[in-house]
Amino acid sequence: RSPELLFYVDTTEQLFGQCVLLSESKTDGSFLIHHFLSFFLKAQCKVCFLGLVQSFSHYSTVAREKGQLVFFEGLRNSLDMLLPESDASDAEPQPLSFLRWPSTDLRNLFDFVNSSLSQSENDMSRWASPVLLIDDLSVLLSLGVNPTAVLDFIHYCRMAVCSKQQGNMVTLVHNEDDLGDEDCDLVLHALTHQSSLILQVHGLNTGYCRDVHGQIQLRWKDKFQLKRDHTHVFQYKVHDKGVSFFAPGTSSAVL
Length: 255
Prior knowledge:
Distance between the termini: 19 Å
Pfam families: ELP6
Protein name: Elongator complex protein 6
Order of helices and strands: HEHEHEHHHEHHEHEEEE
InterPro entries: ELP6 (IPR018627), P-loop_NTPase (IPR027417)
Largest sheet: 9 strands, mixed
Structural class: alpha/beta
Pathway: tRNA modification; 5-methoxycarbonylmethyl-2-thiouridine-tRNA biosynthesis
Family: Belongs to the ELP6 family.
Helix content: 25-40%
Number of strands: 9
Radius of gyration: 19 Å
Strand content: 15-25%
């Protein structure tokens, strides 16, 4: 079995009912978000996407129009909270209300997720299990949210999406070990413990390479701890319309 095929089998066929952690270090791991979004949309899942980094133009307009994808555009919502055009925004809870009232928690953001993925009988007949995608959880820490509040938010999302509805969560976290960010380290370690599948993307230590853009470590954890974790390491190259994976040292530039 080729490394590329192994990667896709391990991250699709076994994925339902899981928590997935994506971490990026010295590179951009957003191509993995695109991979999982594409997979879940093709699987006819109802998706709530908390886009705290990218604008909606990067993602599927068709899926949003037919009600399959609920996209929360964090950049625009942040601007609306910080520079409101009127007092109308005070009339109802806003997902990022903590930006104006720092003493508040992430309850409003959780309520947005929960209401977006709560399925009516009609939804259950149209869509498969619900999915929550978060890109990038580190942004909440950068905006001053306490790491305990971030982990509480993740806990309630797991209970609502994974436990109650047997859905899936995919969370991207930025990781820079050498910066000594204790808050980010705390959140990353907690999510590593809670996740069944962990994908760690690293940039090359040698710097830029035209034919190899980085390395990815894939680790499946046995939630019953009866077996050893399954770990695979690949290198990858991102293309305009996708990404290719290969065993270390087997890129076209080497062979």
